[in-house]
Structures are given as structure tokens and as C-alpha cells.
Design goal:
This protein has helices at residues 3-15, 19-24, 44-56, 124-132, and strands at 26-33, 39-40, 61-69, 75-85, 99-111, 114-122. With 141 residues, the chain is an alpha+beta fold.
Length: 141
């Protein structure tokens, strides 16, 4: 099974809020690198990231632009557009009701049909600026 197939299935678990199925896709040697560059070796951190996102933006919609596999099929990356309404707390920021859009790049490495490494790249400052009203992004949804 190539990495893009595993990657697509992984995002399906996120779309359906199936956190245990998300965890089941992780290899025993799993490691996660978050947007700050901090490395985690347990599966709690990425699940918590998605739970927090879904709590802050319960109507979040992920638009997957395309899944790109590496030549050897062990790595996949996808550009994701995320759009949602800020209806729950996000860290110290109380719900504002503002619509927020952002782009992210998500990368996975696969071994034995499971995700062994995962990395997220997105601009948290731009998300915070949209929540506080300091940045307006045109939404075409």
C-alpha cells in the first residue's frame, strides 16, 4: 500500500472524528513533528491537535488539493485548505463567530502500511489574526 493511499484513509478518519481509528493508523515507532518543530513520540499529540481544531471550529471543512507520493511510495504530502467558523475556544482566544481560512501542508511517512512519521506546516499567526479581526481573508466558499 503506497503512502498516498494510507494518507487519504488517515484524513477520512479525521473527517469523521474517529480518533481511535486515527490512532490505529500509527506505527509502533511513530513520531509527530508539530508546527513549532517539537517532536512527539506518542499518538496523543496529533489526536489532541485535531480535537482542539474541531472544538474551536466545529464546522471545519478540509479541502484536499492533491496527495503527492514520493517516487518510492513511502512518503506523501497534501496541501489542505481549512475553512471553519470560530465557535469554540482556541487556547486563550474565546469564540468570536468569525469565519477563518488557512492552508496547511501535511506530510506522512509510511512503513508496513502504517504512518511512522507525520509533520504539519501551517501559519498559526495568520489564523490568530483572522480570529482577532486583524486579518481578513476572502472566502470563496
Amino acid at each position: 500500500m503506497n503512502a498516498s493511499t494510507v494518507h487519504r484513509a488517515h484524513w477520512q478518519t479525521i473527517d469523521t472524528y474517529d480518533w481511535e481509528a486515527m490512532r490505529a493508523r500509527y506505527h509502533p515507532d511513530y513520531r509527530y513533528t508539530d508546527v513549532t518543530g517539537t517532536r512527539h513520540t506518542d499518538t496523543d499529540q496529533p489526536v489532541e491537535v485535531m480535537r482542539t481544531l474541531h472544538a474551536a471550529f466545529p464546522d471545519v471543512v478540509f479541502d484536499y488539493r492533491d496527495f503527492h507520493p514520493s517516487a518510492d511510495g513511502t512518503t506523501s504530502f497534501v496541501e489542505v485548505r481549512c475553512v471553519g467558523t470560530h465557535l469554540g475556544p482556541l487556547g486563550p482566544l474565546a469564540a468570536t463567530g468569525r469565519r477563518v481560512a488557512s492552508f496547511a501542508c501535511h506530510v506522512v511517512e509510511v512503513r508496513d502500511g502504517l504512518i511512522v512519521a507525520e509533520r504539519d506546516y501551517f501559519d498559526m499567526a495568520a489564523i490568530h489574526r483572522q480570529i482577532t479581526g486583524d486579518l481578513v481573508v476572502e472566502l470563496d466558499d
